[in-house]
Design brief:
five-stranded parallel sheet; 48% helix
């Protein structure tokens, strides 16, 4: 993930020099020739607030007091060259998008412009339609960059809030288990955020222009980033409300197929999926479970990532949902080293149920570990790959919703976790 300090520093710098954002995006045109300057102002005056400068020095002075979205610079100017101005603008305002104009194009000037961060360069005299297209692409890059920067800023704010809460209430000493749960719960979406942010950052740095499938993909990545940050906030708010002794938690009904779709998207770029096969099978007839949506997503995410990480060898993990219309025969579920029902005491066993099954064909779970599954600090992973908090969090969330988890494992065959939840009556 790109370091938070860079975009945040840019945000702080921008905030310090912007009192009120203009109604239109701002275009800075720097050219020592009057003709091109005025032509560009006429072409773009309806869509931009166009600011003109006849030298690099004047352009820098104008940029210092304004929010500049896009700049069009002449490469060959008296005094400060366009390449030098490009470098200074990018250094001071990393988010700005810059187009270069040249009447004397050479391979060296083109390379220099792109190396210093220009998104495109055009020849003089320029064609208006070509110029409009280049400006449109530059503005799309600017919008994508702003969205990514905003996501990173919100994520940093979330981290600061959690740290402030820890310092004020000494969570490490008095409520360390809850604080550890917060960190564990947000770790999964942060992993996804990191992957998406790295892809977007690399695309913005490497691509001279963004269009077609790449543009569509980047828009989707930005949307995923925003949804992941929102989810981080939801999870952190839930646990922070626990710290304020707010026990009246809102429980909402959630459609299972939507949750399964979200789960598949969350894990689409998760490192644990690499080399493994993940199959998500929706319910034939969708149903809703009586549980908070964020809680259920967190339950399934923990169980699925565990299944994906149960062995370093390539293996298969399958997730599926079904509706159970009759009470379970609980007496047929033993408490052994290979099978058990977690949450049995509080499980009402009143049909209909929604059952979501996560199964793998990995090595299975050893008896010594199986007996202690769902206890605090118990993990089947290597020492540096897990905290042991995931299954204890699953147990807490499932049992608080009145549900249970049916587990079975067979050495050399694999393991199955079946989450049983009350079907929502409001969905009938």
């Amino acid at each position: 993930m790109m370091p938070a300090s860079q975009p945040l520093a840019a945000s702080a710098a921008s905030a310090a020099r912007i009192d009120a954002p203009p109604a239109k995006p701002v275009m800075l045109v720097v050219d020592d020739e009057e003709g091109p300057r005025q032509s560009l102002k006429i072409v773009f005056k309806k869509d931009f607030e166009v600011v003109l400068a006849k030298s690099g020095e004047e352009g820098l002075a104008l940029a210092a007091g304004r929010h500049i979205d896009i700049a069009i610079l002449d490469i060959m100017m008296t005094g400060m060259s366009g390449i030098d101005l490009l470098g200074k603008l990018k250094q001071r305002y990393p988010g700005i998008e810059i187009l270069m104009l040249t009447a004397y194009e050479t391979l060296d000037t083109a390379r220099a412009a792109l190396r210093h961060g220009a998104c495109d360069y055009l020849n003089k005299p320029f064609d208006i339609s070509t110029m409009r297209e280049a400006v449109a692409k530059a503005m799309e890059r600017r919008r994508l960059s702003n969205s990514a920067e905003h996501v990173t800023y919100e994520l940093d704010q979330l981290k600061n809030e959690l740290e402030d809460r820890r310092l004020r209430e000494e969570l490490v000493k008095t409520k360390g288990d809850i604080y550890a749960s917060v960190l564990h719960d947000i770790n999964s979406p942060l992993t996804v955020i990191s992957g998406f942010a790295e892809v977007i950052n690399n695309s913005l740095q490497d691509a001279a222009s963004i269009e077609g499938e790449q543009l569509t993909s980047m828009r989707a990545d930005i949307a995923h980033l925003n949804s992941q940050v929102t989810r981080c906030f939801e999870i952190s708010r839930r646990y922070l409300s626990f710290l304020r002794n707010d026990t009246d938690q809102v429980q909402s009904d959630v459609a299972i197929n939507q949750i399964l779709t979200d789960l598949g998207e969350l894990l689409s770029r998760h490192p644990a999926r690499e080399g493994n096969t993940l199959e998500v099978v929706p319910m034939k007839q969708d149903a809703a479970a009586a549980i908070n949506g964020t809680d259920l997503l967190q339950i399934l995410l923990n169980l699925t990532v565990n299944a994906l990480q149960c062995t370093a060898k390539p293996h298969e993990v399958k997730i599926s949902g079904e509706l159970i219309k009759a009470p379970l025969d609980l007496s047929s579920i033993p408490e052994t080293d290979r099978e058990r029902l977690v949450g049995r005491p509080g499980f009402g066993n009143e049909a209909p149920f929604v059952a979501i099954t996560i199964s793998d064909n990995g090595p299975g779970i050893s008896p010594s570990i199986f007996r202690r599954l769902f206890d605090e600090q118990i993990t089947t992973k290597e020492a540096d790959q897990g905290t042991g908090l995931g299954l204890s969090i699953v147990k807490r969330l499932v049992t608080s919703a009145g549900g249970a988890v049916h587990i079975s494992t067979r050495p050399g065959v694999g393991s199955t976790f079946r989450v049983l939840l009350q079907k929502s009556h409001s969905s009938e």
